[in-house]
Amino acid sequence: MNTSNGYIVATAEKACFFTDFRYITAAKSKVYKNVSVGLIEKRMAETIKEYLAGLDIKTVIFEENYLSFAIADGLKKA
User: Which of 36-40, 49-53, 58-62, 67-71 is predicted most confidently?
Assistant: First the structure.
């Protein structure tokens, strides 16, 4: 995918690429088959928090050069 509008959340067991409605169709055809594709329907932090909660994830490590402080802070307030 050639877009900066996407985030990947990876655990030891699975990975999901999140993007908004503009890129969802392209993402489904371009990402690796073992990576699911998620639609950002709310704010990014809320979408990721819900995904992580569904996996019972308690700790998040993120790439500070690629994730805004606002999103990282939003994840912290889960």
Answer: 36-40
Taking each helix axis as running N to C, give the angle between helix 44-54 and helix 69-76, from 0 to 180 degrees, rounded to the nearest 10.
40
Say which residue the tokens 């908004």 belong to: 20
Residue 4 CB neighbour total at 10 angstroms: 6
* Among 7, 14, 15, CA closest to 63: 7
What pTM, to 2 d.p., does this model score? 0.77
Contact 39, 19 (CB under 8 A): yes
Question: How far is CA 77 from each of CA 2, 16, 20, 45, 71, rounded to the nearest angstrom?
Answer: 31, 21, 22, 9, 10
Residue-wise pLDDT tens digits, 14-37: 999 999 999 999 999 999 999 999
